[in-house]
Amino acid sequence: MNQYPNEPQQPPYGQPPAQPGPYTQYPPQGQPGYPPPGYPQGQPGYPPPGYPQGQPPKKSKKGLWITLGCIIGAVVLCSVIANAASHSNTGTKVSETSSSTTKSTNDTTTSSQSPSQPSQQHFKVGDTVKVGDTWQAVVNSVKTDDGGEYSGLKSGDTYLVVDVSLTNLSSTEQNVSSILYFTLQDSTGQKYDQGIDINAGATLDGKVEAGQPLRGSLTYEVPASIHNFVLHFSPDIVGSGQTTWDLSV
């Protein structure tokens, strides 16, 4: 028995001293002698002092400029489309009425306008008007009607019946909707809805083959005390510009 318990045990005679095993405990960090000489020292911490913690990286301004450029391009494209549509919705006169006064006025108006600008003139009953490259339109007549015995007119109202002819100038079949394409207003700007008059005949609605005509009536319930109206024709419902006729009864 070893007389000194604190003294390390010596191996039996003839055996080499024990080598440190894989589980040999070294002194904890911060104690003298650790880490051993030559051991790589700790690197500076990350992130470095002063770096904002938990903050997302700043976004590049490049994406913002690209988005802004796309928006500006879309606005310019819409303006070009609307300008082209305005030319297709505005009519130009093809033939003159029998009135020499009307002929002189229309000739003067046409000659003073630039070819690049749409005509803003109002047409008369009987004028043949080319609207864009698709339609040729004529307001044949305008009259009032009481609707007959079974009329549903309100007191003080009458039916305004407008006889219109359209010709499809395009090479493809076209659709006509009297409610979507035509609008009636009085001199104050008041708009009127279409009514049903059994005396007016067929409405101006349906499919029109290429090169073929379509004739029908537009019927509006209006106050009997009003005698002057304007009729607007806008076959391109998403574009600007319209063809206008002055109507009197």
Characterise the protein shown here.
- The protein has 249 residues and is of the alpha+beta class.
- It has a domain at 125-147 and 155-248: Immunoglobulin-like (Sandwich), CATH 2.60.40.
- Helix content is 18%, strand content 27%.
- The chain contains three helices and eleven strands, in the order H-E-H-E-E-E-E-H-E-E-E-E-E-E.
- The chain has helices spanning 61-89, 100-111, 178-181, and strands at residues 91-95, 128-131, 135-145, 157-168, 174-176, 182-186, 191-192, 206-208, 213-223, 228-233, 243-248.
- A five-stranded antiparallel sheet has the order 1-2-3-4-9. Strands 7-6-10-11 form a four-stranded antiparallel sheet. The protein has a two-stranded antiparallel sheet with strand order 5-8.
- It is elongated and about 135 Å long.
- The chain starts with 60 loop residues before the first helix and ends with a strand.
